[in-house]
Amino acid sequence: MSNEISGGNFFGPVLQVGHVHGDITIQLPAEIPLALGGLPRASPTFTGRGTVLDDLLGMLGPSDSEKGVIQVSAVSGMGGVGKTELVLQAAHAAREKGWFPGGVLFVDLAGYDERLRVDPAAALDGFLRAMGVPAEHIPSELQGRERLYRSVLDAYAHSGRDVLVVIDNAFSSEQARPLLPGDSVTRTLVTSRHTLAELGARLLDLPTLGLEASVELLDRRIRLARGDGDTRVRDEPEDANEIARLCGGLPLAIEIVAALLSERPQRSLRTMVEDLEDEHTRLDEMRSEERAVQAAFELSYRNLPPDQARVFRLVSVNPGPDISTAAAASMVHLELRHCRRLLDALARAHLLDTPTADNRWAMHDLVRLYAAEQAHALAAADRQEAAVDRLVEYYSDTARSAAEHADPSRTAPSDTSFHDREDALSWFDAELPNLVGVVRRMGEDRPSVALEVHLSLVHYVQRRRRFTVLTDLGPVALEAARRLGNRHGEARVLTNMGLAQNEMGRYEECVRSCRAAAEMFMALGDRALAGRALNNLGLGLDNLGRYEEAAGVFRRAIGVFRELGDRRGEGAALTNLGSALLLAGRVEESLDARRDAVAALDQVPGRPDWQGMAMTLQNLGASLNALGRHTEALAVLRRALAISGELDDDFGRAQALNNIAISARGLDRHDEAVEAALQAASLYRDCGTAGHLISPLLTAGWSLRTLGRYRESVTAHREGLDCARRAGNLLPAGQHLEGVSASLRLLGEFHEAVRAQREAVSTYVEAGEPATARAAERELNRLVRATGGGRFRRLFRGR
């Protein structure tokens, strides 16, 4: 059997069968994604760190078999000492030497700013996207992202395309650890103000610059700005030494002072020394290194013209880690070009970072803290409250426009702010941290804004599969709606939370959220949204194995949609009804429901609902499978698979492959069944929908056992059992336990086989399946008799 998987690039664990016997392989893109080349530029004035840079490069270089590989190097030192610059210099030098042909992953964790701190799950999401992993493949939960991240890095390493990982500004080992690679090849650089001994890394403590290096940095920065004709440092060596001393050997402070001197080429170093000494006297209660940075900030800030100083203060109150030129212009109430000039001036003064290609501006965390202190002191003079109102209005208005474009049901959005859907989704990508910050900060003061921004995110979250955004912000948005007395908004938030909870496998929570939402919508007379909430409620019940209850809820939703003439909604609910009926054992009724669903979707006006049609075809195929009409089912399911492929819908592909595996097994084509089932399981993992693994792993376990691959069968069943237990789905949990038992007895492991079969019996009893429990108990008795009778009864009695 061939192990080649055709049809495009597969990311995440694509489990292949045949000669590889279940090994995990990943097909990488032919070219390195551009994001892997997105390392921030290194400073041309870097100096004074030659020895430590050589040490760091020695850790990154090709391994010496006798010395071994240093996989993680952690650079620690105080804020402003130059940790980030050091690792950037090392990363660029290593790339130039050809050591990391796969590129560099870089993230600033903003660990020392509680408001902006990046959690590991969000950082992994960014890394996976940078490596070209499609959004729909990225799991929702941290563990799934870690597993996929390490698998992709391992694949890069084993294909000869080593990647360097740079984790900047980590607050703790706990924040950095999930981002560490799992293979023995990929190298990692970490920076922190703390010594992260718990990482098991090679530790490197970065001291402040010595006097000579500090003076050299001052000279280089001035001459970079003014040219070699500016000889003030050489002409005034004593004053240059004093400036270096007053800056405490901190590159950040030296660069700010150099920027001040560059702005005024006629200014002598002596006057700068006097100003710095004045600031140090005023700040003499601080530690010396704190005084150095604070004094540099004070001097630079006091030299700003009033309009630049105001922008500097106001930018610090932005709720996210960076700000676009457009958002800043809205906040400070200036024309875009004028605002851009002011931001450029702040960057030249080293009070803002150099802007990125997409016109986004950020601050060093120490600078942000200083700016926020000034902003607080001058809030009234700056009319800060009005500025924040304008900023929040910009985010909420633009999010509303982007949401209209992101809605797949809108064929011609009335708003023209975005070129197309992808343009709107890209805006959400860039602004998501700011939008999350708006919801969190505005929940109490401006609840209407928090609610509106939360509701605007739903289509984006569905497309990018960032469901944790809705669940994390849901409580804030709910409280905002309740503060406003907005019952309709409250119900919409609950519906969105239920949708996300279902996708994340949190089915009990989904049922509670959607039931409450449906009741609210009905009471408010909004039958359209009540129908959608009922549909989501049915999905949660279905995933909990409460099939009859789910079928009743789906029928209620169908009635609502028919009454409203909503053929799209009717088709979706009929499709889901067919699934519940099938799982309840009512196969003929399931087939009728799914045929009705196809008919309803054929009558959707305007743009065809291809995604809905693919799902309906998948489910129709499932019903045909249940009737033993596997050849018919395969034809329907292959059409569904093709549509999902055209839509780049990997969740849909997983659904189709799951059912194709069942068809192939029914036709005794077990090799095909295993291949399709394991591909489906892989795609489900990548999509972060662990609850859906239960079915393909059951099929894989059965067919692997038929093929004589007993150990692999046990592995598949045990993973499926774990998924079923986490989802609270007891019936398939019992089926997986019986599968474990059957394969173990064929391996001769009779004690464990009896244990698994006994557990299956108790699981069926707990699930309220007495007939299935009795059948499993009869099998248990046969097994006990065949393997030692009374001895086994005594051994396992009461366990």
Automatic annotation (TrEMBL):
GO terms for molecular function: ADP binding. Pfam families: TPR_12. SMART domains: TPR. InterPro entries: Apaf_helical, P-loop_NTPase, TPR-like_helical_dom_sf, TPR_rpt. PANTHER family: HTH-TYPE TRANSCRIPTIONAL REGULATOR RV0890C-RELATED, REGULATOR-RELATED. This is Tetratricopeptide (TPR) repeat protein. It comes from Allostreptomyces psammosilenae.
